[in-house]
Amino acid sequence: MQLRPVREPRRTARVPAAVVCLVLGLGLIAGAAAGAWVLRGPDGAPDRTAYTEAATLWHSTPVDTLFPRTLAGEGAGPGGADRAWTRVAVAPDAPCATVLQPQLTAALAPAGCLRVLRATYTDATSSSVTTVGMVFMETDTAGMTALHARFTDGGLDENPDLIPPALAAPGTVAARFGNVQRASWHVKVLTEVPVVVYGVSGFADGRAVPRPQPARQAMAKGQTTAPAQAGLGHEARGVADRVEKGLRTVVTRATEGPERKEDR
User: How confident is the model at residue 4 (pLDDT cuts 50, 70, 90)?
Assistant: First the structure.
């Protein structure tokens, strides 16, 4: 837009207007500076929180950190038996809509589903396989709290229509681990970090499981279903819990200042 010419007789009116603009401008600058100060810590560095850092962790953290090559499951098996898992596959990060089925994508959509990271592990006997995933979200604490309530209190975490996908790995023990082989699953919506962690397990021999069972039910005493007796509920939850623990460690380190890291 072109500026319109101002006639000379109105020059005197321009002086007060210029003063007003100057005052407003200084006020805006001061306000912005004050806002920047509020958002910074005592040392002048921007405050780091799990919510500010998590958005970049999915592509800045080494895969071996997010999904270690081996996981130790001390006391994670049925009856408190120790378990151990070895990673057999890692998938490239992907948009939620291309990995998760439409119903699960829709359930996560209110919290802004950003990216999905996945890996598959097998147990020490190579008789079971478990895909573990981390779904990074674009929301705040209130958004994750609401999502947690919908999944945990609302029962979406045990809805068989929302079972997370399996990740097969050709040429490995998980070569035949598809969606019809899913036997048990565990979904946990975190609130301290904008991430949903899940684990889904099945038999390594490729057998189909017509009625998958949520990990909580499969781990309950007295269960006689195939997933329960094979300990697949323990597998799904055990792998997911350990990946979640590693994620929390990564987030804690990311939110600490350089000075604290160096003091360790």
Answer: very low
Contact 135, 93 (CB under 8 A): no
> Percent helix, strand, coil in the chain (nearest 5)?
45, 20, 30
By three-state DSSP, how is residue 211 classified?
Answer: coil
Q: How far apart are CA 235 and CA 203, in angstroms?
A: 11
Q: What are the DSSP calls for 52-83, one per residue?
A: HHHHHHHHHS-HHHHS-SEEEETT-SGGG--E
| Strand partners for 26 | none
Nearest by Cα to 81 from 93, 73, 89: 73
**Average pLDDT along the chain:** 83
| The Cα angle at residue 193 between residues 216 and 247, in degrees rounded to 5 | 75
Mean pLDDT highest for which of 65-79, 128-142, 245-259? 128-142
Report domain extents, the chain. 8-38, 50-255
Residue 199's pLDDT band (cuts 50, 70, 90): very high
pLDDT band at 48 (very low <50, low <70, confident <90, very high): confident
The answer to whether residues 209 and 226 touch, using CB atoms and an 8 Å cutoff, is yes
What's the angle, vertex CA 101, arms to CA 98 and CA 107, rounded to 5?
A: 110
Which segments within 74-112 are labelled E, that is strand?
83-94
- Within a 10 A sphere around the Cβ of 12, how many other Cβ atoms? 8
Residue 114: phi and psi, rounded to 5, are -100, -55
Q: Average pLDDT, stretch 149-156? A: 95
Radius of gyration of the chain (CA): 26
Task: Mark residue 87 as left, alpha or beta (left: phi above 0; alpha: psi -120 to 50; beta: remaining).
Answer: beta
